[in-house]
Amino acid sequence: MNNEALQARLGAAVRRLRLERDLQQRTVAEFGGVSLSAVRNLELGRGATVATLVGVVEALGATDWLDALSPPPTVSPIAMLRQQRALEQQQRKRVTRKRQPPRPAGSGPGR
Q1: 59-72 confidence digits (pLDDT tens)
Q2: Can you give the residue ranges of every domain in the chain?
Q3: Are 45 and 9 in contact (CB under 8 A)?
C-alpha cells in the first residue's frame, strides 16, 4: 500500500470514528486545538502533520490508537539475551573424567 492510500485509509478511520461519536468537524478542531481545514484535510487523506493527528485523536478520545503504534514488548530482549547466553554456557561445558594417577615406570601391562 502506498503513502497516499495509507493517508486515505487513516482519514476514513478518523472520519468514521468522528461520526460514531456524533461530532462535527468544527467541534473536533476546537477540542483538538487544530484548524477546521486541518481536520478536513486529515479526513480526506490529503496529508496532515503529526500535531494535527495527535490533536484529533485526543479530541476523539482515541489515544489508544497511538498505543497501537508501539505496543509494549511482551518479552524482554535483555531477558532473551541472558537466556541465550546461559544456554550457550551449558552447551560449552565439557565432561571431565577423573584422571588416573600415573603408573610407576616398568609396571605397565604385559610386564
Answers
A1: 999 988 888 877 77
A2: 3-69
A3: yes
**The three cell numbers locating residue 100:** 588416573
Contact 46, 38 (CB under 8 A): no
- Predicted confidence band of residue 111 (pLDDT cuts 50, 70, 90): low
Element (H, E) at 41: helix 36-44
Q: How confident is the model at residue 103 (pLDDT cuts 50, 70, 90)?
A: confident
Confidence of residue 40 (pLDDT cuts 50, 70, 90): very high
C-alpha closest to that of 17 among 52, 71, 61, 67: 61
Q: Give yes or no for a contact between 28 and 22, defined as CB atoms under 8 angstroms apart.
A: no
Q: Could you confirm whether domain 3-69 is CATH 1.10.260.40?
A: yes
Do residues 59 and 49 make contact, with C-beta atoms less than 8 angstroms apart?
Answer: no
Q: Which residue has the cell 476523539?
A: 60
Quick check: helix, strand or coil at residue 109? coil
Cell matching residue 33: 486545538
